[in-house]
Amino acid sequence: MTQTPVPALDVRNLTKGFGAVKAVSGLNFSCGRGEIFGFVGPDGSGKTTIMRLLAAVMAPDSGSIHIDGIDVVASPEAVRAHISYMPQRFGLYEDLTVDENIAFFADLFEISPIMRKERAERLLAASGMSPFRKRRAGQLSGGMKQKLGLTCALIHAPRVLLLDEPTAGVDPVSRRDFWRILYGLKDEGVSIVIATSYLDEAEHCTRLGLLRDGQMLYCDTPPALKALMPGALVAFTSPQARAARDVVARLDGVTTATLMGDGVHIVVDDAQKRIPALQAALAASHITHDGVDQMTPSIEDLFVALLTPAGAA
Q1: Are 162 and 84 in contact (CB under 8 A)?
Q2: What does pTM read for this prediction?
Q3: DSSP line for 58-122
Q4: What is the pLDDT of residues 1-40, one digit of tens each?
Q5: Interval 224-265: pLDDT, tens
Q6: Domains in the chain, please, with CATH?
Q7: Calpha distance 138→88 (Å, rounded)
Q8: Would you call 267 exposed, middle or buried from its count of C-beta atoms within 10 A (0-12, 13-18, 19+)?
């Protein structure tokens, strides 16, 4: 008889409150080995609290967390060798060089000099940081600091990696490099839980949990979540995008109309039925625009449709 694999991380009925505010309410999810599980949600949805609970930085009010079979709530110290937690502001020492920061974190986990050297060289090469080993951390760019933080977080070879918005404020090239490293770790069997505010990054996750007000309202693979799109998505671009959004938002059959740069993304009940009416309304308002076409929704479109309160878009 084939046994079901034990997940690397398993969370059941997790709850955490701060006074009258429920930051996390009845959270259930698991993360398999070699999986990237992502959390997305608006500010205040509970992402950072969840990450701190998983990292045993704080204790939940109720519920359970098991990582590599260890009860995190009952034995928070026992799990630390199995995980690595990279908060939004990772604690690098800016007066120390890249190498010295790595050595410090290696010493914390009692990594032997031989193992430290091999891991550091591999991680620095993967992140493109090898030429900067003697540079002080305070002199690194924001993206380089994050890549150094990830290297320090990985120096003890954790089996579960917890990342709280690791690419916030990082340039696009460094974000791409960061995700290339994450995919390499995934292929090595490392389980990754990431909270991100970049919805394009959410597309890279194996599974996603969509959060609002401390609750996970939806959880599935990105393609499966997109299938939940309520209605059809149509879009166009216009130099008068804001005025165009205001015109189409009032039309029959339009659920939401959202600005996306110089574009407008509109969720309608029936694309073929509503596109002619959209075009006619824009023409009547003398708004210049390109073609109004049906599109495949992105995670960002889904996020707006499912999680944004009515009228907020």
Answers
A1: yes
A2: 0.85
A3: S--SEEEEEETTEETTT-TTTTGGGEEEE-SS----TTSBHHHHHHHHHHHTT--HHHHHHHHHH
A4: 445 567 899 999 999 999 989 999 999 999 999 999 999 9
A5: 998 888 889 999 999 999 999 999 999 999 988 999 889 999
A6: 9-226 (3.40.50.300), 232-296 (3.30.70.100)
A7: 17
A8: buried
